[in-house]
Write a structure and sequence with these properties.
The structure holds 2 protein chains of 2 kinds. Helices cover 46% and strands 19% of the residues of chain A. By secondary structure, chain A is of the alpha+beta class. In chain A, strands 1-2-3-4-7-6-5 form a 7-stranded antiparallel sheet, with helices on both faces. In chain A, β3 and β4 form a beta hairpin. The longest helix of chain B has 20 residues. Chain B has 2 domains: 87 residues, RNA polymerase sigma factor, region 2, helix turn helix motif (Rna Polymerase Sigma Factor, Chain: A); 85 residues, no CATH class. Chain B is globular. The chains are: A alpha+beta, B mainly alpha. Chains A and B meet through α1, α4 and α5 of A and α1, α2, α3, α7 and α8 of B.
Chain lengths: 252, 179
């Protein structure tokens, strides 16, 4: 191929990647260059016969299944074992039941205290997920409770209790301001192994409650309680037993 | 090319990663399988390699910093295919080496000439091409990638695809005058 246009412009022209001026230039060139006309014709006929050929092969259903099983095994929460279908159904039923119970107790908690919950589950999950985006986790980063607690001074109309539980396996990472249900709240950030736990704290006039049963949605668990004029909600992807342990430590 | 960084792959992936992977990468499983099928030519081998490549992509998923997920995945699939060929059928890659010594493609033009629209003949014609010609044609004509995308998947700069430019691959198939 000796014509420069064949190597430089032909593929751009075929791909519709040339600007209008260069495309027009190439089209003018085509009128007088047999080489490019032949090359373009060959490429176009090859393209159309390959595209009409039905040679594209889609992935077999069996492969799709195998890959999903492989992904399950490589994802942290699943243990990597093949779980029989009936067990999956049992687990799903338990999850639904737990979610139902926690929803029930959640809404009951609101009704018992003759007020609506100050924020929704969706807002808590959103706030938690948002905090996991790079650079969003903490406004004040310190494992020292005596640094984190004063930081909230003047930024909120209340002072949240802040305590580090590093000895118990829950390291204080820092704190941040967040907004739940249109209200400014304190978010305390703890880490449990590599997982992040957000504890949202805001003042309440409602009476104390016990630590409510866990809620679960989209793979996140939460625990909610009221204690000494503060409303708490801890949320994370850690196991509920870990979350409950932290809730108990904070409840004391 | 930070978008195609394959990362360390040692992270433990959680439910959030899984959801993102399902949304961004898994939809390109057909593309992954199709490329493997044409590079390896046997369905059973292609299934194994495509599966391995997909799980590999998942392990390296935290190294994917956005951008074209299909190109990122196909790059991994392509590498997996060549690694597999080197190990199991090195002769096929040797054939290509010979081609490099002889810049004029010499793949049976008669077979290609009569290929036409006939699916079986076209399949055979495509399969007799050296892998590096074949992958360009498959990505270009079956997968609908632009030359820019092909360059990023194959890590071969546009216009310098060895042993010649992509158009030479076309020339091979159209050598006998496809309709």
């Amino acid at each position: 191929m000796s014509c420069d246009f064949t190597t430089t412009l032909l593929h751009g022209y075929l791909d519709d990647e040339l600007d209008a001026a260069r495309a027009a230039e190439f089209e003018r060139h085509l009128e007088c260059c047999h080489e490019c006309t032949a090359a373009l014709g060959a490429e176009e006929s090859l393209r159309s016969s390959l595209q009409r050929s039905g040679l594209y092969e889609n992935a077999p259903v069996e492969l799709r299944k195998k890959i999903r099983a492989g992904l399950d095994a490589a994802t942290a929460s699943s243990a990597g074992m093949r779980i029989p279908a009936w067990r999956l159904i049992a687990v799903a039923a338990t999850v639904l039941l737990l979610a139902g119970v926690s929803w029930f107790s959640w809404s009951r908690a609101g009704k018992d205290s003759a007020s609506t919950a100050p924020f929704t589950v969706a807002e808590i999950i959103d706030a938690h997920v948002r905090s996991l985006q790079p650079g969003h986790l903490t406004d004040v980063t310190s494992t020292d409770q005596h640094t984190v607690k004063p930081w909230f001074n003047g930024r909120l109309a209340f002072v949240p209790p802040v305590k580090d539980f590093a000895d118990e396996g829950f390291t204080l990472v820092g704190g941040r301001l967040d907004v739940l249900g249109g209200q400014n709240v304190a978010a305390l950030v703890y880490s449990r192994r590599k997982h992040i736990i957000n504890v949202f704290v805001l003042p309440t006039k409602e009476p104390d409650t016990a630590i409510h049963p866990p809620g679960l949605r989209q793979g996140y668990q939460w625990r909610h309680w009221r204690r000494q004029g503060m409303e708490y909600c801890a949320i994370s992807d850690v196991s509920d037993s870990d979350l409950y342990e932290l809730a108990q430590l904070m409840y004391q | 090319m930070s978008g195609y960084d394959q990362g360390k792959g040692s992270d433990v992936l959680d439910a959030e990663d899984r959801a993102r992977f399902e949304q961004l990468v898994l939809p390109h499983l057909d593309a992954a399988f199709n490329l493997a099928r044409w590079l390896l030519r046997r369905r059973a081998d292609s299934e194994d390699v495509a599966q391995e490549a997909m799980l590999r992509a998942y392990r390296f998923f935290r190294g994917f910093h956005g951008g074209d997920a299909r190109a990122w995945l196909l790059q991994i699939v392509r590498n997996a295919c060549y690694t597999w060929l080197e190990k199991n059928r090195p002769v096929e890659l040797m054939t290509e080496f010979d081609e490099e010594l002889h810049p004029q493609p010499s793949t049976s033009p008669e077979a290609l000439a009569i290929a036409g629209d006939n699916r079986e003949r076209l399949t055979r014609a495509l399969e007799t091409l050296p892998p590096r010609f074949r992958e360009v044609l498959v990505l270009r004509e079956l997968e609908g990638c632009s030359y820019k995308e092909i360059a990023s998947i194959t890590a071969i700069p546009i216009g310098t695809c060895p042993p010649a430019s992509p158009s030479s691959a076309h020339a091979v198939l159209s050598a006998g005058g496809l309709p």
